[in-house]
Amino acid sequence: MGIENLFLGFQIAITPFNIFVALVGILLGTIIGVLPGLGGANGVAILLPVTFTMPPTSAIILLTSIYWGALFGGAITSILFNIPGEPWSVATTFDGFPMARQGQGGQALTAAFSSSFIGAFFSIVLITLFAPLLAEIALKFGPPEFFAIQLLTFSSFVGLGGGNPLKSLVSILIGFILATVGLDIVTGQLRLTFGFTDLMKGFDFIVAVIGLFGIGEILLSVEEGLTFQGSKTGMNLRVVFDTWKVLPRYWRTFVRGSFIGFWMGFKPGGATPASFMSYAFAKRFSKNADRFGKGELEGVVAPETAAHAAGVAAMLPMITLGIPGSPTAAVMLGGLIIWGLQPGPLLFKEKPDFVWGLIASMYTGNVLGVLMVLAFVPFFAAILRIPFAILTPLIVVVCAIGSYAVHNSMIDIWYMLIFGVIGYVFKKLDYPLAPLVLALVLGDLAENALRQSLIMSQGSLAIFLARPISGAITAAAIFFFILPIITPWWRRFRGLPAAAPARPEA
Amino acid sequence: MRAAELITASVLMLLGGIVIFDAVRLGFRWGADGPQSGFFPFWLALIMVVSCGIIFIQAAFDQTHKSFVSREQLVPVLKVLLPAAAAVVLMQYVGLYVASAIYLGFYMRWVGHHSWLTVFVLAIGIPVATFLVFEKWFLVPMPKGPLEAWLGY
Questions:
Q1: What ipTM goes with this model?
Q2: Exposed/middle/buried for A185, CB within 10 Å: 0-12, 13-18, 19+?
Q3: What is the SS3 assignment for A183?
Q4: Cβ contact (<8 Å) for B8 and A429?
Q5: Residues of A with CB below 8 A from B41's CB?
């Protein structure tokens, strides 16, 4: 049945209008990925209002295409400018930038785009196979199971996110608390408004995303002085084909990176650890381990494959369970609700054309994406040569437009600025921002699931452990929550050295 | 860095306290037909206050001396932030397009020292382009002021 559905999806995804939408999305997405301060999440958030008048399938194709474009764009800045646009591009700079300095920028970029494509493609195939099964299983889920999955989502930020686990926890709690502000739809009471009418609407997560990631990032980058010392792209058709001839040699790295990426990626915040893990494995198994960090092609292949596989895998829980695996997927989930679709397992039954159109568009979007970035790298790299005194205010204005457009309200632009300052401070103090955004998005869903579960059990928390599926998931969640506590103890027990400080911000 | 850590943790504890206060007012126990409105926020805020308390203690004993932000770093940040806040105030009176033209022009000239020609072309060109894209193409209305009214929008 999968093949027919996929075929149906392709019929939707390759209509001329949807191809056009995908091309526009990839173009915008790559520009967004290249620009400092604009990443996938807030790029999608800013352009969300533009999709309100589109058919839902075209709208999601636009947003996912922006996401693919932003993923590709991150590689360009990492390799040519040593500026990782996203945390998961950090590992790409290790070998990508030295290669570009040695005049091999073209090879590095070709390898990065090709690996991204292969990693993404692998994940899309797995999504095609597993998404319907997962949705089928999820149909049997009740409120306790959904709440348990939410617990698991957030526990993985605390247990696997790196950095200070308490700060991850606080970020999650802030997100949930912000989500409760306003009208409580169950009891009809106003919560945390303290008599201010402006607070009655609550905080929109799209505005939070634009402020935290967009404005916050801009403030951080002007602080660092913003001097772009870019290398030449050195990209032409011969370089592309010559690199492609070399790439099959790294098939083991591709396979390993894809598996690591997919496995880490469908859990939240997985893309960054996946890219580092894949890089570390490639280095360990490589014959040229000492060349890593000095411009080894495999050092570009490994993290890019894993990061893209993870980036795509983050879509799996979003379409099957209605629980996003990354801030970008969270914004898309918000879009789904705005377009009048109910995210969750029922989507496969009720809107098969939407779901399969989306899955098919992942194939077309990534094929179009890799061809476009290969062809237009010099153009995208030129964007970073625009003087920052022009780019900076322009990005601020674009963010303001995006925030206002969500609800047509001025107060949202103020919230955006405040979230920008919060984002700046939190980023400097290593409070991760991604869990805050996910909690803000999922707040209402989580609270409702908790309430319904407690009503089912007459107020006993034991319900989460008593049911088999939710019990297993809850146990896993508890394990991740206490992982930061048991890890140092375990290391001492085994006589291992203390963990190296992990990278914050998943 | 330490001061910033301590202040952030304290502010978050204070906010958590305010949330707990409101949650208690709403009722955080078991109601007639399920948990009361304050139940969820109460527990969230309580865990947050405790976590921030531990972060506060961790930071207080932290010996590394790294400054949170230096004067040289803060100046460019404020140069973006304060004009942006001014532009938002201005938006309420003259609309988004005029305010962004002024903001773009001001920043390009003041920080970037670009030539007046560049400043004028871009500061007027960019808002006009956004106007065409959003108002005309995507039909997303933005706050407008007297200038747009005079032009008939």
A1: 0.93
A2: exposed
A3: strand
A4: yes
A5: 177, 180, 191-192
What's this model's pTM, rounded to 2 decimal places? Answer: 0.85
How far, in Å, CA of A90 to CA of A86, rounded? 7
CB pairs under 8 A between A and B: 166
Among A220, A413, A455, pick the best mutation site for testing chain B contact (most B Cβ within 10 A).
A413
In order of A159, A245, A278, the CA distances from A252 in angstroms are 29, 15, 11
Question: In chain B, which among 9-28 make CB contacts under 8 A with chain A?
Answer: 12, 16, 19, 22-23, 26
- Structural tokens at position A48: 């969300």
B113 interaction partners in chain A (CB closer than 8 Å) = 389
DSSP assigned state of B34? E
Chain B contact present for A429, CB below 8 A = yes
- What is the b/e burial string over A248-286, where b = at least 16 CB atoms within 10 angstroms of the residue's CB? eebeebbebbbbbbbbbbbbbbbbbbbbbbbbebbbeeb
**Which pLDDT tens digit goes with each residue over B65-97?**
777 888 888 888 998 999 999 999 999 899 999
Separation in Å, CA A218 to CA A85, A221, A282, A380, A402: 12, 5, 33, 19, 15
Q: Is A423 left (phi over 0), alpha (psi -120 to 50) or beta?
A: alpha
Residue-wise pLDDT for A208-218, tens only, equals 988 988 898 88
